[in-house]
Amino acid sequence: MRRSSVNRLAAGAIEGPIDLPGESHAESSVAEHRPEPVALPTRLRKPTCVSTPALADRFGRIHRSLRLSVTDRCNLRCRYCMPAEGMRWLPGLAIATADEMIRLVAVLARLGVQDIRVTGGEPLVRPDIAVILERLRGVTGIREISMTTNGVLLARHIDALVDAGLDRLNVSIDSLDPVRFAAITRRDDLARALEGLAACERHPTLGPVKVNAVVLRGVGEDDVLPLAGLARARPYVVRFIEAMPLDAGREWNADQVIPGDELRRMISAVWPLRELSRSRPSAPGRRWRFVDGAGEIEFVSSVTEPFCAMCDRLRLTADGRLRSCLFATEETDLLGPLRGGAGDDELIELILANVAAKGPGHGIGTPGWTYEGRPMSMIGG
Ligand code: SAM
Ligand code: SF4
């Protein structure tokens, strides 16, 4: 769908009701653009909660979470994310200022967004990151602020981040072996990342810090047990994330993905596991506890077990574009209109149109599926 169609959808979303599955409205411009119906779990056919109907999509999913990318820059070059060299950065002026981000978040919060995950690129390379957090804390309606970071700059920032209002933290560390860490990230920074992780233990309010790990086949098998062991030895929840075709170098292939189930079998052969219920229905990760009670791990199996049907996430890129899915082929520019003097009503219209056009799921693995949009580091992971 071209951007002009997205704008036409804006009119439909504002002038008429948003069609929800199970309801029939007269034909509208939204209906013209509706793809073939897809089978969704019965409980999704009607939304169970309509307290913020403005951000309900056509499938009844209510959007309350935002991934806010504050930069596309990074101090590492993880091989499943960025090429070793030649990454093309957004021009500085294209990146939203703290003021602009807060204004956009405030509009989204008016529509029911409650939880913000600050990400990037690497959020800690942005000099005003603590200011952004503090200002987010002041936005009416925002309930929880979390962050995903590679941890390299964390030791020096963690106190200021918590003071500014950080509630939850994920630190991405793919290997506890310095040589393999350097091979994956192309930087010799494991010691600094671990120092950052340890510094978080000064802040019990963060709850269990989560450690994100992407394990690639043929690269990271030897990292699986040490990472699981970290969840047993320290107060962290380790999350194994399947690699998705979102690397800027376009080198992903399905053979690189170790399914979460396979990793779980490797771990439970040594330390038996039992499954826990999801922390909330829209949580992407399946949680498992070691049977001996020594800790908890999660599997985010986006490729082999997509959780699109329960997705409640939107994404705002560092250059102020709203995306309803990591794999969305369309995004809606909010920063341009904001800089052009758009009022809240105009921004709301654009946001509603974007959510109305959200597809049922990412479709990885379906025959002929391709994705040519922006990579993870430019969207915000
Ligand atoms: N730089 C920060 C970091 O690495 O934590 C935040 C941004 S990064 C894009 C957010 C998360 O996305 C990280 O946990 C990273 O491992 C994950 N990630 C990056 N590229 C990925 C890919 N192609 N597939 C799956 N996860 C990916
Ligand atoms: Fe940087 Fe995070 Fe991408 Fe690694 S995963 S290159 S740390 S943005």
**Helix and strand run:** HHHEHEHEHEHHEHEHEEEEEEHHH
How far apart are the termini? 24 Å
Which spans of ≥5 residues are poorly predicted at pLDDT below 50?
A: 1-53
Helix share, percent? 25-40%
CATH superfamily: Aldolase class I
- Side-by-side strand order of the widest sheet: 7-8-9-6-5-4-3-2-1-10-11-12
Query: Main sheet?
Result: 12 strands, mixed
Overall mean pLDDT score? 86
Supply the CATH architecture. Answer: Alpha-Beta Barrel
**Broad shape:** globular
Number of helices: 13
- Derived from helix and strand composition plus strand pairing, the structural class reads alpha/beta
Strand content: 5-15%
At the fold tier of CATH, the topology name is: TIM Barrel
- Hetero groups bound? S-adenosylmethionine, iron/sulfur cluster
Set down the secondary structure blueprint.
Layout lengths: L2 H13 L13 H4 L9 H4 L19 E5 L28 H13 L4 E5 L9 H9 L6 E6 L4 H11 L3 E5 L5 H8 L4 H11 L8 E6 L9 H10 L2 E6 L18 H9 L4 E3 L10 E5 L5 E5 L12 E4 L4 E3 L8 E2 L1 H5 L4 H13 L19 H4 L2
Parallel strand pairs: 1-2, 1-10, 2-3, 3-4, 4-5, 5-6, 6-9
Antiparallel strand pairs: 7-8, 8-9, 10-11, 11-12
Helix pairs in contact: 1-12, 4-5, 5-6, 6-8
The structure holds S-adenosylmethionine and iron/sulfur cluster.
Iron/sulfur cluster (SF4) binds next to loops.
Can you describe this structure?
It is a single chain. The chain is globular. It has a single domain (3-11, 50-379), classed as Alpha-Beta Barrel (TIM Barrel), CATH 3.20.20. With 381 residues, it is of the alpha/beta class. It has helices at 3-15, 29-32, 42-45, 98-110, 129-137, 154-164, 178-185, 190-200, 224-233, 260-268, 335-339, 344-356, 376-379; strands at 65-69, 115-119, 144-149, 168-172, 209-214, 236-241, 273-275, 286-290, 296-300, 313-316, 321-323, 332-333. Residues 1-53 have low confidence and may be disordered. Helices cover 30% and strands 14% of the residues. It has a 12-stranded mixed beta sheet with strand order 7-8-9-6-5-4-3-2-1-10-11-12. It has 13 helices and 12 strands. Strand 11 (321-323) and strand 12 form a beta hairpin. It binds S-adenosylmethionine (SAM) and iron/sulfur cluster. Iron/sulfur cluster binds next to loops.
